[in-house]
């Protein structure tokens, strides 16, 4: 019989790490070979707001994989919504909007910048 404590999936581990605000340990999963684990780790970083999480998401904006860039953009948007303030990543997103070639990434950037603008206009920035 397998001990359930040792058969926990990586995504379950990531969720537990979010609850404990362990961004360093979550960051270890952003380059996992499984795309679902990477996606979960990036989304988890968007639930945190420490400098390591923010800096990692900003670095991921330059990742070669468009899906990873999209996930990072969305995570930064989630962070802005949760904190109800304009994020320090806004400048990076604006720059990426001018340099990005992938249409899906551009759409995610546009959506996220709209969220940030709405937060700013509502007087919460």
What is shown here, in short?
The chain has 125 residues and is mainly α. The chain has a single domain (10-121), classed as Leucine-rich Repeat Variant, CATH 1.25.10. Helices cover 66% and strands 0% of the residues.
Describe this entry's structure for a reader.
The chain is an all-alpha fold. It has a single domain (10-121), classed as Leucine-rich Repeat Variant (Alpha Horseshoe), CATH 1.25.10.10. The protein is 66% helix and 0% strand. The chain has helices at residues 10-19, 23-27, 35-45, 51-60, 66-83, 90-99, 103-121. The longest helix is centred in the C-terminal third of the chain and has 19 residues, at 103-121.
Task: Please supply descriptive tags for the structure shown above.
0% strand; Leucine-rich Repeat Variant; single chain; mainly alpha; 125 residues; globular; 7 helices
